[in-house]
Specification:
By secondary structure, this protein is α+β, with helices and mostly antiparallel strands. It has seven helices and 19 strands. The protein has helices spanning 3-16, 26-38, 150-154, 183-201, 267-279, 295-301, 326-340, and strands spanning 44-45, 51-56, 62-67, 72-78, 84-89, 101-105, 111-118, 139-143, 163-166, 171-172, 177-180, 210-215, 234-238, 241-243, 254-260, 263-264, 284-288, 307-316, 322-325. A hairpin with a 5-residue loop joins strand 1 (44-45) and strand 2. The longest helix has 19 residues, at 183-201.
Length: 342
């Protein structure tokens, strides 16, 4: 694997190992800021908890944004049987985390493990198991402690509002497939760290002033609604590229989004990205994402006067156990290189 692709994959493993659903992101933000400092940059952490970092370059300032917050859940109720009813954080379907190992974080920093199961989850007991619609109302966390009552669970320090984080199960196969929860959007954060390393190594010569913006709260809709550098004239979301029926993109490609549920992206930006991909003979696809929103649109909605675009490595099974490929990482990094040197 090429040096910077390997660097991105190594950072991805470290990022996904740090639980970070919305509202619970400080540890992963500190990690990411630390990596940027190691590379010789001076990241700033905003009051909201985002990172803004100037990579250098002069004129025509562009913001490259990726979000580091993930999906997850919080305890909504400690049930009489000692188990936990959850409330999702972000758009996490209950069905995609059924039987998943999870961690419960108490406010005094104790951590317990459990499994998210359908209520009455034994097939040999529950004859309706296969017919039951999976929802947060009929599923529960079975805690891996000797508890069978609300009082016993409360004695562990668990309370309503405690965060529940699901195991990412990050794997990179010998064939180059990247499988994990939260590739949306930690894979893009890892790629932006690789880009920062390329700049620090002198492997990319920036033709314009370039900021990294690592956001939080994107999964709940307001990631880039504040603290975007005031001199920015362009905002590029580096987020997952959609893979699915009716779309061209595969996990091995870089996806260029022409339009999503928030409307079309800037025509001149999309065309410039396509031209760079063609000149670089990259493996790319242009698609319209039917059920998608981005930090670029959040920035526009907050009133920032910027042109906007969206690219990302192709990711299949979004908001579930997702899959991409190292070739998608290579193509995305290559497109960023070409675009920033124009």
């Amino acid at each position: 694997m090429e040096t910077y692709t390997q660097y991105a994959c190594d950072r991805l493993k470290e990022l996904t190992a740090i639980d970070s659903p919305d509202g619970f992101t400080r540890k992963v933000i500190d990690y990411t800021a630390g990596k940027l400092k190691e590379l010789g940059f001076v990241p700033e952490i905003t009051n909201k908890g985002c990172i803004v970092c100037n990579l250098g370059g002069k004129g025509n300032p562009i913001v490259l944004s990726a979000h580091i917050d993930t999906l997850g859940a919080q305890v909504a109720e400690i049930k009489n049987n000692g188990r936990l009813r959850l409330s999702p954080v972000g758009g996490l379907p209950a069905s995609v985390v059924e039987t998943e190992t999870c961690r419960i974080y108490t406010r005094d920093e104790r951590v317990y493990e459990g499994t998210f199961q359908l209520c009455n989850a034994s097939l040999h007991v529950n004859g309706e198991l296969n017919k039951t619609v999976r929802s947060y109302d009929n599923m529960e966390v079975v805690i891996d402690e000797n508890v069978s009552s609300k009082k016993e669970t409360e004695a562990l320090g668990i309370d309503n509002g405690c965060y529940v984080c699901f195991d990412p199960r990050t794997v990179i196969t010998k064939s180059g497939y990247i499988k994990s929860r939260y590739l949306d959007d930690k894979l893009s954060v890892a790629m932006l760290l690789a880009l920062a390393k390329k700049v620090q190594d002198g492997a990319v010569k920036l033709a314009r002033k370039t900021y990294l913006f690592i956001s939080v709260y994107e999964e709940v809709g307001h990631g880039a609604k504040g603290a975007v550098p005031a001199d920015a004239v362009e905002f590029m979301s580096v987020d997952m590229g959609c893979v699915g029926e009716g779309l061209k993109c595969t996990e091995r490609q870089v996806s260029i989004c022409a339009k999503d549920s928030g409307g079309p992206y800037d025509y001149s930006v999309v065309n410039a990205l396509v031209k760079c991909a063609q000149e670089g003979k990259l493996d790319y696809a242009v698609d319209i994402y039917p059920h998608y929103g981005s930090d670029a649109e959040a920035a526009l909605g907050a009133g920032y006067d910027v042109k906007h675009g969206l690219i990302g490595a192709g990711v299949y099974a979004s908001h579930g156990y997702e899959r991409s490929h190292v070739d998608g990482v290579k193509n995305t990094l290559a497109l960023l290189d070409l675009y920033l040197q124009k």
